[in-house]
């Protein structure tokens, strides 16, 4: 994507490229290499703009922005950082900011977008960790009620943000794999989603895991993890054993 932006001779492409440099080290490396030999790799106007960049100052600014991004994600869902140590999450945040996924709205909130990226990234190494990111991604997303149902006293055409309308179709769409399971009916719930997991993840009282240790995850088996949103910004989670397959 960065290389394609370098070849485009328009203001929109240059603006997007400059924004990417504030978060993406790989984009900065591509730009630095292109400026060394701009022939055929970068348009003249873009080269003129990028040649004014102080790459050392850019690195300092990028590091600060990544710290702020990590803090923002942590404030959005502190329980995830209680469950998974920062040493595992921080590299994922940095990889997320360095990827095209950071600029694509696959999720319905920034945190859900990050969890989707983290889920895909770790799934090949740890399905448990992937399931944890899916669980917390859903819980955090359901904590944003404007994406589930508009408040009764607010017109459905607005999110409360001036000039920004509510995309109800997007709010109802789930980017997560549900494992082919249909969520159960949950009385009074505004919306529910579920997925299949080999770990209980949620205890009998609906509490989320606080670590990845076996005793914090419950008995292994075959579960349908259900997350439901209720009026008043309330979110609940449950683990339902799937008949005939639960250990």
Compute the gyration radius: what is it? 21 Å
Segments where pLDDT lies below 50 for 5+ residues? 149-169
What is the average of the pLDDT values? Answer: 85
Question: Numbering strands along the chain, what is their spatial order in the largest sheet?
Answer: 1-2-3
Question: Strand portion, in percent?
Answer: 5-15%
Shape: elongated
Total number of helices: 11
Provide the structure class: mainly alpha
Order of helices and strands: HHHHHHHHHHEHEE
- What is the helical fraction, as a range of percent? 40-55%
Biggest beta sheet summary: 3 strands, antiparallel
Annotation, overall tally of beta strands: 3
Euclidean distance between termini CA atoms: 47 Å
Explain what the structure shows.
Helices cover 46% and strands 9% of the residues. The protein is built from eleven helices and three strands; from the N terminus they run ααααααααααβαββ. Strands 1-2-3 form a three-stranded antiparallel beta sheet, covered by helices on one side. Helix 8 (110-122) packs antiparallel against helix 9 (127-142).
